[in-house]
């Protein structure tokens, strides 16, 4: 068998293994080591002696996920000249994923922390062609030359395998809950690329240029939050003849077209902020058969608010009082409010629900209890009744905060979302896609039952930090030989996820 055919066969086996892990079909045979008794110490953090066991569990799962992902990424067309290549495409892709898996802050830090550490042991185990650790600038130059959407397409393929699997339905048996929101990625005082958006143009003191992304996340019933697709806001070709820039509502339509291919119609519930409380967005969701819960602000859709307040006077029965923890809630709703928009006077039938919430909270200075009160309002695609109002508002709509928490993790807890990994626009998008692969892998591993004890003790960020600190200093953990999957009936085990309920937080 030739070397090329042997490599192709290995890639196919790796992809099949990764798909089996994601779908839950794989059976892994290994000897489960006896858990050491916890030391009698103050605090509950993992001791230095347990770091080897922690890293071994993390690596056990990583060894099954990464080879297949690398095989998928190796199908991307390499634009470099074959006779001038020192590091192969899979080696550079692996280096880029490890950069974000290990929460490395920058390219310079990657050269220092990955290039000068024992992390190369992992790369040499996963890839036979690994000879030396590449330089981060080499990766940046490659990402600037490959197809800008190639990595994102591979990530979509990975998501498709997981979403269609039995494992996904096991941890998320109901509808698919998706949150979308825009966030600032990079802001500079000069225009480094024609595709960058501009703010306060013409004012030298306040003029800014930025890269802005419309992100979507998958919120699962066991508490996992996985990055979905990203739609960048770009000028250039999208800058129309009137000089109007790209915006979130335009990007929402493009993102929805991609998501409906991935998730399908009629099984999705989207939660959105007040920016999307518009007729075109709601019509688009209805066309795709998506249910929605959209935040409704007082200054938006004034005609709808006027009719809602008028109906409340004649529909006193549309009220429900509830106790949620230490908070008192009062729900009010009205259904089938007619709303007309657009030049063609298209009509929509809207359902509006409000929640007035009150509670007592200790004052930050005096410590005395003080009364707090707030109000929320949403547009619902479903008819609101006394039976479903609590579920729609508290268990669905208010989980929109999880995408804000996701942005917090990406920006401030290890993934350097706002860092300038490259000022080349295409290379920056490539780094962004590699970060999504890393965030998916880390979320997949840290939410498994195998890691649950350590996650409780250390937290997600602390666990990842300890694992990669150990790998840099000591290399692969003891007892970390590569586990091989088998498909027999004996010793059948698969990756199971922690059963964590969604936090009931406003």
Structural class, by secondary structure, is alpha+beta
**What can be said about the biggest beta sheet?**
10 strands, mixed
Top CATH class of the largest domain? Alpha Beta
Uncertain residue segments: 27-38, 480-494, 499-506
CATH superfamily of the largest domain: Transposase Inhibitor Protein From Tn5, Chain A, domain 1
Describe the structure.
The protein is α+β, with helices and mostly antiparallel strands and 506 residues long. It has 2 domains: 10-148 and 422-486, no CATH class; 175-412, Transposase Inhibitor Protein From Tn5, Chain A, domain 1. 40% of the residues lie in helices and 20% in strands. It has helices at residues 3-23, 51-73, 89-101, 107-113, 120-126, 136-143, 150-163, 166-171, 248-263, 279-287, 302-314, 389-396, 401-412, 425-446, 452-458, 460-474; strands at 27-28, 176-188, 197-199, 208-219, 225-233, 268-272, 291-295, 319-324, 327-341, 346-362, 369-380, 485-486. Strands 2, 3, 4, 5, 6, 7, 8, 9, 10 and 11 form a 10-stranded mixed beta sheet that branches. The chain has a two-stranded antiparallel ribbon with strand order 1-12. α1 (3-23) packs across α2 (51-73). The chain is globular and about 80 Å long. Mean pLDDT is 83; it is low at 27-38, 480-494 and 499-506.
In short:
The model is unreliable at 27-38, 480-494 and 499-506 (pLDDT under 50).
Summary keywords:
40% helix, 506 residues, disordered C terminus, alpha+beta, ten-stranded mixed sheet, globular, two-stranded antiparallel sheet, Transposase Inhibitor Protein From Tn5, Chain A, domain 1, 12 strands, single chain
């Amino acid at each position: 068998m030739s070397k090329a055919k042997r490599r192709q066969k290995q890639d196919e086996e790796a992809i099949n293994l990764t798909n089996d892990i994601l779908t839950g079909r794989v059976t892994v045979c290994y000897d489960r080591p006896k858990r050491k008794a916890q030391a009698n110490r103050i605090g509950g953090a993992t001791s230095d002696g347990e770091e080897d066991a922690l890293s071994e569990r993390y690596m056990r799962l990583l060894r099954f996920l990464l080879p297949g992902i690398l095989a998928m990424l190796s199908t991307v067309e390499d634009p470099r000249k074959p006779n001038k290549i020192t590091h192969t495409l899979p080696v550079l892709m692996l280096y880029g994923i490890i950069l974000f898996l290990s929460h490395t802050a920058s390219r310079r830090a990657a050269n220092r922390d990955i290039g000068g550490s024992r992390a190369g042991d992992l790369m040499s185990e996963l890839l036979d062609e690994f000879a030396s650790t590449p330089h981060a600038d080499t990766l940046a130059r490659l990402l600037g030359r490959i197809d800008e959407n190639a990595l994102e397409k591979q990530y979509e393929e990975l998501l498709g395998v997981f979403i269609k699997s039995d494992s996904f339905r096991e941890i998320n048996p109901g509808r698919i809950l998706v949150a979308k929101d825009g966030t600032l990625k990079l802001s500079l005082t000069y225009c480094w690329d024609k595709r960058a958006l501009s703010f306060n143009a013409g004012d030298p003191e306040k003029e800014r240029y930025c890269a802005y992304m419309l992100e979507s996340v998958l919120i699962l019933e066991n508490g996992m939050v996985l990055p979905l697709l990203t739609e960048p806001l770009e000028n250039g070709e999208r800058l129309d003849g009137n000089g109007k820039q790209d915006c979130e509502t335009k990007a929402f339509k493009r993102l929805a077209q991609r998501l409906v291919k991935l998730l399908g119609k009629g099984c999705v519930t989207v939660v959105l902020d007040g920016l999307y409380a518009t007729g075109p967005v709601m019509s688009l969701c209805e066309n795709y058969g998506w249910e929605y819960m959209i935040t409704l602000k007082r200054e938006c859709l004034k005609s709808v608010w006027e009719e809602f307040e008028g109906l409340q006077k004649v529909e006193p029965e549309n009220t429900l009082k509830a106790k949620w923890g230490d908070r008192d809630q009062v729900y009010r709703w009205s259904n089938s409010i007619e709303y007309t928009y657009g030049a063609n006077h298209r009509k929509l039938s809207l359902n509006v629900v409000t929640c007035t919430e009150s509670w007592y909270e200790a004052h930050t200075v005096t410590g005395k209890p003080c009364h707090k009160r707030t109000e929320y309002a949403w547009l619902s695609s479903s008819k609101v009744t006394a039976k479903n109002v609590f579920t729609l508002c508290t268990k669905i709509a208010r989980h929109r905060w999880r995408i804000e928490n996701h942005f917090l993790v990406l920006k401030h807890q290890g993934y350097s979302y706002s860092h300038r990994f490259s000022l080349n626009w295409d290379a920056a998008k490539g780094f962004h896609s590699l970060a999504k692969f890393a965030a998916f892998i880390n979320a997949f591993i840290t939410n498994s039952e195998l890691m649950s004890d350590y996650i409780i003790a250390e937290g997600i960020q602390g666990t990842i930090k300890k694992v990669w600190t150990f790998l840099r200093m000591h290399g692969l953990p003891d007892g970390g030989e590569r586990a091989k999957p088998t498909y027999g009936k004996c010793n059948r085990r698969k990756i199971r996820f922690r059963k964590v309920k969604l936090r009931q937080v406003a």
